[in-house]
Design a protein that fits this description.
17 strands, 10 helices
Length: 407
């Protein structure tokens, strides 16, 4: 077990101490007023942690505090790790970004696209082209989530038992075959829709590598990077460090809710949202990206591969909103493009919070977040465990972090 520590004074790293105090007090009020159980915030410049705050509780009922070595379900922050795994296979020539997915996963060989109707009267047609690996990495494959409740295809996912991405008792291979039997919302490569695509990537990694996803992650990414507290389930001795998961109530408070099963190896290994991690480990993952694919003498990816992952891949420089399906009109999409499982700032003036062109990162459904700002050599991670309804943390987090920059 390794623990994240502050290793440089904030002022020496170009951060304003008073502004950081305001940042801590702001989120401390969220805790004190019952909107968050606790949180961990780490801000680094040039890879050196210049501000580290752990405040509140990781388990409210037990009175256990958030500590630097607390473990968190990072949910969709798993997706960038999956993207790195895919790029490892591409780098080795075992996979191409332009490979049809159906070449390795036969259930995707003949995709069909929604044309009209609903329920048993849904009409489909053959897709205009194949689903490619790059479509999965950029969420432009035409897949969806069953819990959106916005499109007739979403309803088909729910009818197939996929409201929460995986039917009870199914493994990754079985679930991905089920995805493939459902119609796409649109022709591959023509729109953006956040989806189950990273689970399909997880299965693709298994087929190409010949290894279960958890084994591939451990041997090729987590082990080499020293991310010993990251995995799809808890190792012996880790149970007491796991933060409890909460949900936001209608009144704006929090209550315990069931979480991703991590006590024992899960049958379903989710490349979309299955990992548990620590602040130390995720700092190392961010460092891999910030340093262009190398960390402490271990090179996983070439600088070119990281550059490809972390720049906007939407056609013609489109943004998520301009390239998105009509159902995707959430606030916060303006000014963002999308790389390989990370958002990328393309127009800072249109984002809801201060940012800089080229900043990339992603979030998790339990209100975790990270970003890397190459222009300011800045990395930020925020960890808590609340599934929100109305709680909006990230715009204020960005605003207050950027207010602390003095250079």
């Amino acid at each position: 077990m390794a623990q994240l520590r502050q290793d440089v004074e904030a002022a020496h790293a170009g951060l304003d101490v008073a502004a950081l105090g305001r940042l801590d007090r702001h989120f401390g009020r969220h805790v004190d007023e019952g909107r968050l159980p606790g949180f961990l915030l780490a801000v680094a410049r040039g890879g050196r942690v210049a501000h580290l705050t752990a405040y509140g509780l990781r388990d409210v009922a037990a009175g256990l505090p958030v500590e630097p070595d607390t473990l968190w379900r990072i949910y969709s922050m798993t997706k960038p790790v999956t993207a790195v795994a895919v790029l490892l296979l591409v780098q080795e020539g075992r996979l191409s970004l332009d490979d049809p997915v159906g070449r390795r996963l036969p259930a995707f060989a003949h995709p069909r696209v929604y044309e009209g109707g609903s329920g048993t009267a849904v009409r489909t047609r053959p897709a205009a082209g194949p689903v490619l690996v790059r479509h999965l990495l950029t969420h432009t494959a035409g897949l969806t989530f069953g819990n959106y409740h916005r499109h007739p295809v979403d309803a088909l996912y729910r009818e197939a038992g996929l409201e929460y991405s995986v039917p009870p008792g199914k493994d990754l291979a079985e679930t991905v075959d089920l995805y493939a039997r459902l119609p796409l919302q649109f022709d591959p490569g023509t729109q953006w829709n956040y989806s189950v695509a990273s689970n399909v990537l997880g299965r693709l990694i298994e087929v190409v590598s010949g290894q279960p996803l958890d084994v591939f992650f451990t041997e090729r990414i987590l082990g080499p990077l020293g991310m010993t507290d990251t995995g799809f389930h808890l190792a012996p001795g880790q149970e007491g460090r796991l933060a409890r998961l909460y949900g936001e109530t209608d009144e704006g408070g929090i209550e315990p809710v069931p979480g991703l099963p991590v006590h024992g190896r899960p049958r379903f290994l989710s490349g979309s949202g299955g990992l548990v991690s620590s602040a130390h480990d995720f700092h190392r993952f961010m460092e891999l990206l910030r340093r262009g694919g190398e960390l402490d003498g271990t090179r996983l990816l070439t600088p070119g591969a990281v550059a490809l992952m972390t720049r906007n891949q939407l056609p013609g420089g489109a943004t998520i909103r301009s390239f998105g399906a009509p159902v995707h009109q959430e606030p916060g999409m303006d000014g963002l493009g999308f790389g390989f499982n990370v958002s990328v700032v393309t127009d800072p003036a249109r984002t809801l919070a201060p940012s800089h062109t080229g900043t990339y990162g992603w979030t998790g459904v339990a209100t975790t977040a990270f970003w890397v700002d190459p222009a300011h050599d800045l990395t930020v991670q925020f960890m808590t465990q609340v599934r929100p309804k109305r709680l909006k943390v990230f715009p204020e987090l960005r605003r207050l972090v950027h207010a602390a920059l003095t250079d």
